[in-house]
Amino acid sequence: MSTAPTIPVFKLYGETHHWPTPDLLHCESIPERSALHDWHIRPHRHADLVHLLHIARGQVELELEGSHQPLQGPLVIVVPSMSIHGFRFSPDVDGHIITLALPLVEHLAQASSGGLLQQAASHQLTQPDSARRIATLVAQIDEEYRHPAPGRARMLEALIQALVVALSRLQESAGRGARGSHRPQERGHQHLVNYQALIEAQFRRQPSVEQFAAQLGMSSAHLNTLCRRLADRSALQLLHERLLLEAKRQLTYTNMTVSQVSDSLGFSEPAYFTRFFKRHTGLSPREFRLRQQSGEPHKQDAPGQTG
Fold it and tell me: Which segments constitute the HTH araC/xylS-type domain (predicted)?
């Protein structure tokens, strides 16, 4: 659409800084963020994130691909990647926003539960049992996210899978597409989705942008132009962001040495990996691991800062 170049591409909920956590999921209440923006999140899109909004009570005006829809809780809204969206909440709104990074979305799709995450939709929770079940799962995700405990990553994955399955059941009972709104992606959007899928499958080998472009049947210049237009980053930056996310996860959740992490991510030597990591985070891998173990936030990666 003609207005697409003016639509900001956010890394998180109204933000432009990097994904703030080694987790593949981010959860926060709607009031704690929206109140800072006068309850209005202006239209934007995400190149590689999916939103699940649970509104227990209150109203929201959903702007999706240029259309406006007033909605009343309790309900769940699904906003897939690349969809231009905005929200205007009532000040009495109560609910949560769960943001899923692309690797987790891909995993859910492979587990046959992810089709729901590829289509924009709103699901009104008209049945008390369904509303209670969804609210319980969201509350459990929020509790697990805010209070880390052993097995946290596995628990969060299990809970989000349960939530997606519960929402899929709602969608099926309501009839396919009865409450959803879906606009076919532009061809360029599909190319970006395909490139992101290639990154997910091959990032550990670190193919060149030229090799990725050849697999997609286009020139590297065309791929770079497409990524900058739709994701506001170069093709190489998207690959580097995936490498960085995996490095953070391994440094946080495994006992692998820095050398082992370097090897697992396709770096020719640990010194090169250390320079790469420090250039993007301001910390060496060892410093990052020590901060994660101590629970001390790194100001560049801490949630809650606006870009």
Answer: 193-291
3-state SS class at 208 = coil
Ranges under pLDDT 50 in the chain = 1-5, 13-17, 176-184, 297-307
Residue 76 · residue 52 · CB < 8 Å = yes
Tokens of 220: 């590297």
Question: Three-class SS string for the chain?
Answer: CCCHHHCCECCECCECCCCCCCCCEEEEEHHHHHHHHCCEEEEEECCCEEEEEEEEECEEEEEECCEEEEEECCEEEEECCCCCEEEEECCCCEEEEEEEEHHHHHHHHHCCCHHHHHCCEEEECCCHHHHHHHHHHHHHHHHHHHCCCCCHHHHHHHHHHHHHHHHHHHHHHHCCCCCECCCCCCHHHHHHHHHHHHHHHHHHHCCCHHHHHHHHCCCHHHHHHHHHHHHCCCHHHHHHHHHHHHHHHHHHHCCCCHHHHHHHCCCCCHHHHHHHHHHHHCCCHHHHHHHHHHCCCCCCCCCCCCC
What is residue 21's predicted lDDT score, i.e. its pLDDT? 58
CATH of the domain at 51: 2.60.120.280
Please say which residue of 174, 196, 211 terminates a domain.
174
The reported pLDDT for the residue numbered 267 is: 95
Q: Which amino acid, 139?
A: A
One-letter amino acid of 278: K
pLDDT at 276: 96
pLDDT attached to residue 295: 63
Structural domain span for residue 260: 187-294
C-alpha dist (Å) from residue 38 to 32, 33, 42, 60, 61? 11, 9, 11, 13, 14
